[in-house]
Amino acid sequence: MPVREKSFRIGCGRYIQEAGALAQCGTEIAxxxxxxxxxxxxxxxxxxxxxxxxxxxxxxxxxxxxxxTGTCSEERAKELADLCACxxxxxxxxxxxxxxxxxxxxxxxxxxxxxxxxxxxSATCACYTPLSVRYTPEGRxxxxxxxxxxxxxxxxxxAVIATQPVRLLLAGVFDALAKFVEIRQRYRGDxxxxxLGLDYxxxxxxxxxxxxxxxxxxxxxxxxxxxxTADFDQLVFTTLAATGVISGIARGSNQCALAHKFxxxxxxxxxxxxxxxxxxxxxxxxxxxxxxFNGEAERNAExxxxxxxxxxxxxxxxxxxxMSGEIFEEYIRRxxxxxxxxxxxxxxxxxxxxxxxxxRSL
Length: 362
Prior knowledge:
By secondary structure, the protein is α/β, with parallel strands linked by helices. The chain is 51% helix and 11% strand. It is globular and about 60 Å long.
């Protein structure tokens, strides 16, 4: 498939991961400005406000903290961009989960200001990647917006992230696993005729897949015991940073396929019934479709074991998607029309229908 992005936006300006990293927030803001607008979710701010504001007060002339409870919508992002212009704020600081990370980047985009992201969970790599998935205020997906510049700084305080529910950690694991499984739709590491850099993205994704499948149980046990171990650190780094690097090296080429397209379509067709489910949970279900399409349905046994062990969704129905009748055909139409499928290739279209039949039987 063609490369979607011309530039390799491989990283963020600075990535800091350690217990107590929030204490460095003021110093990091001072590298970029002196008057931050801090935007976070209610829960996220309750976990971070004291340490965050204590650090900010030592380094900044002024600051404001705003609680955001909506979606990553352009309407609200533009309002906060206008607020920055009116009050002279010069840095956006996002605090929270994936939606909040995307929202902070969107605010920074409209305000033309640098962005520091502080993830409070490891559920997605949204804190790191230079794009935002946008939604209507009601929660319908309206597409991704890619940015020309990278995130300026990510501060991952593992003492905060270790308090997340296991569900969030697992959502991040499945979202990260998707990189390897989706790249394998068109590239297996056995040819040089691929876009520049995709071989490196493949190698990193393969290593990440191995790390995640081998260390997840130990990381969960450590987190539940309130311990920050090497396994937990490695999982957080893999889901937040390494997965973001893989996306940047791939440049949008062959690393977002059927699993993520299933997510996007589900958010449109079933935005109400799918609302309770996390990005990584829906993508994780989509991996079952992706593996079958790749001719590797045997890989699903490992994924299903993990899903069932921790009570994760394990079918389309489990994430609120009804695959019966006309809706089934609508999924096939939308997937065929997406970048994940070559609709001019009859064999791909046949395999897609066969895989979808398998998928809805789960």
